[in-house]
Amino acid sequence: MDREVYLDYQSAKPVDPRVVEAMLPYFTERFGNPASLHTVGDRATAVLDEGRAGVAAFIGAQPDEVIFTSGATESNNLALIGYANRAKREGAHVIISEVEHISLHNIGKFLEKSGFRVTKVPPDQFGRIDPDKLRSRITDDTVLVSVGWASNEIGTVQPISRIAEMLRGTGVALHVDAVAAEGLLPMDMSAVPVDLLSLSSNDIYGPPGLGALYVRKGVRLAAVTIGGGQENGLRSGTENMPAIVGMAAAARISAEELPRESARLAAMRDRLIAAVLSTIPDSHLNGHPTERLPNNAHFRFEGIEGESLLLSMKDKGIAVSTGSACSSKTLEPSHTLISCGLLHQEAHGSLEFTFGRFSQDADVDRVMEVLPDIVARLRRMSPLYETH
Amino acid sequence: MKSTQYSEKTLDHFRNPRNVGTLEGDDVAVGRVGNPVCGDIMEMFIRVRDDRIEDIAFQTFGCGSAVATSSMTTELVKGMTLDEALTVTRRDVADALDGLPPIKMHCSNLAADALHDAIKNYRSGKKLEPMSTEEIAGAGTGCGVSVATVVEGIADYAGRGVYAAVPDVTQLADKRVLIVDKGVASARLALALTEVTPRVIFLTELDALGLPEELATQVKRSDVKVLFQSRLAAVRGEGEVEKVLIHDLDEDNDYELFVDAVVMLEP
Fold first, then answer.
1. Is residue A386 one of the residues assigned to a domain?
2. Residues of B in contact with A300 (CB under 8 A)
3. Does residue B218 contact residue B200 with C-beta atoms inside 8 Å?
4. For the residues B16-38, what does the mean pLDDT come to?
5. Are residues A24 and A164 located together in one domain of the fold?
6. What pLDDT does residue B63 have?
7. Which pLDDT value is given to residue B27?
8. Backbone angles phi, psi at B82, to 5 degrees
């Protein structure tokens, strides 16, 4: 068996061993519920405050602007449903970009059933949302706009600062799903007027099962999870203390290593892109040529189907993704790729590589050892591909 | 429904078409539509007396549905006033035939368009000679399309993403451009656009490039993405072109494609 090569970091990341080490005591001797009034409870409160401050510092926010959740999906729910419900009196129109994660599209459908009008704003062929096009969608009834910091699939980075500046003072709130970009691009809420920002712990090599929502001071939400009133009443449920300690540790490591790590990943990404485009005929890069996440390379190969490509790579011990990991089980092509203007067969012929903290240069070499032959073999049996 | 699943009534009109032939005389006008490249040619003859269609005949070179819809159209409008005849829609024709496979609906356009053309020519006093059999035989084979296919919404986007001419390709730099096959000029434009944008889609109703060989080879070798057996069904978007609905003639289904611009060159 060949050495296993994992290039699907957007689907799942290993928890950094340093993070695991920081978390371990909080499962056992340093347990505690911050709501308790005794010493054990007080200690837990201090740990919770520290964890919150750690995550806040990671994005240039104040500690009381951070709400812990069970993950990015919950953060997205709280942001969109919580904000829309609270702002109902001002308007009932929500705008979501077409290139968002499936969770946001489904939340949009839920909002429509709840009486809101939800419109989508399409990207250009590189996956970028044009702030002017976005502005043209805004009406007097619009209360909220949701645009991801970067696409989890094609890696295109959005002009978030420009979008945020465009919305400033309009009374329309901006929600940003930052999951794909966190730990790869610097984020500073004190500099960019984003109102709501969704984060995931695992996406910065912290434990799965925890996320956070940044809520700018003054932005009001209606709770979605009702209970004992934790997290300022916005997200009830006893805090997941080990995970919070872990996410704060992960955020600290991520912030420290970000400049060097992003450069290292970008170098591997660029080497793979150059090698694929120059050696494999009729291959194309999906997403933006320059404004893309440092860890993302997303290709389409004419005439072949992504799943057969994925399975062939799997046989060689290489883990990659086709379209969105969530949609691998469905036959529908990735919505993001379709909204960039790809045909169904092109979207189906796409393959996504995402590098991460434990990727090495040798991984690129291994991919290039096998990928050209796999593509050639699959094309030989494809009715859709003819050599020119 | 498969493209060949016709109703009994349609099959009857196909096997025994009514009012086939030509008409002659001073009170006869001819309407003609069709696209010789795709193969459908339709001629409709009307004899008008006291503003009524006293007699009508047609000739067609097309698929079963084109024959049946023409036949039914002639039956429906015979005896009508010209104004009444102008109100007959392709839906009326399809209904009278107990329905048509969706993929074949466009064929019923041909008969209606030819009829409208004949009425227009009658009113303007224009005379057309019937085509010779050689001309018709030279038109090709198969079920093609009328030149007058209606694209839903296209008029709403004129100047907002729909172009009838592209004098300067740089105006479409980095746009996703869909070019409807209008022959050589449209293919040359598609090639020129690949210099300014990575995404150029050439939409043709044919199952092969109906272009001179050298040009066809150039298109094949280029980054132009050719969609065969496809028809532009609708243009959509908020305020400007954002996507199109494409009808796949082979699979008989519709799908959306995100684009920024649609080019339909004026002939």
1. no
2. none
3. no
4. 78
5. yes
6. 63
7. 87
8. -60, -40
Residues of A with CB under 8 A from a CB of B: 119, 122, 124-125, 136-137, 284, 338-341, 343-344, 388
The confidence score (pLDDT) of residue B17 equals 81
Distance CA(A203)–CA(A249), nearest Å, equals 13
Is residue B143 annotated as part of the catalytic site, yes or no?
A: no
Residue A385 forms part of a structural domain = no
Q: What is the pLDDT of residue B146?
A: 38
Q: Which of A253, A242, A184, A173 is nearest to A213 (CA)?
A: A173
Domain extent, residue A145, equals 17-253
Of the candidates B176, B220, B227, the beta carbon closest to that of A341 is on: B176
In a domain, residue A387? The reply is no
B118 domain-assigned: yes
Tokens representing A164 are 């945020």
Q: Which of A40, A285, A326, A370 is catalytic?
A: A326
Q: What residues in B contact A288, CB-CB < 8 Å?
A: none
Considering only the beta carbons, identify the residue of B199, B220, B242 that sits closest to A388.
B220
At B139, the pLDDT band (50, 70, 90 cuts) reads very low
pLDDT band per the 50, 70, 90 thresholds, residue B154:
confident
This model of the complex carries an ipTM of: 0.83
Secondary structure of residue A81 in the 3-state scheme: helix
Q: Which residue of A has its CA nearest to B225?
A: A343
Residue A280 pLDDT > 90: yes
Query: By residue range, what is the domain housing residue B169?
Result: 154-263
The predicted model scores a pTM of 0.75
Tell me whether residue B148 is in a domain.
no
Q: How many CA atoms lie within 13 A of A338 on its CB side?
A: 16
Residue B36 — very low, low, confident or very high, per pLDDT cuts 50/70/90?
very low
Task: State which residue of chain A sits closest to B177, comparing Cα positions.
Answer: A341
Mean pLDDT of B26-47: 74
Is B145 within the bounds of a domain? no
Q: How many CB pairs under 8 A join A and B?
A: 33
Contacts of A341 in chain B (CB under 8 A): 176, 199, 257-259
Write the CATH number for B190: 3.50.50.60
Domain of A89: which CATH number? 3.40.640.10
Measure the CA–CA gap between B138 and A348, rounded to whole angstroms: 41
What percent of chain B has a predicted confidence (pLDDT) above 70? 82
HSE at residue B59, side-chain half, CA atoms within 13 A, is: 16
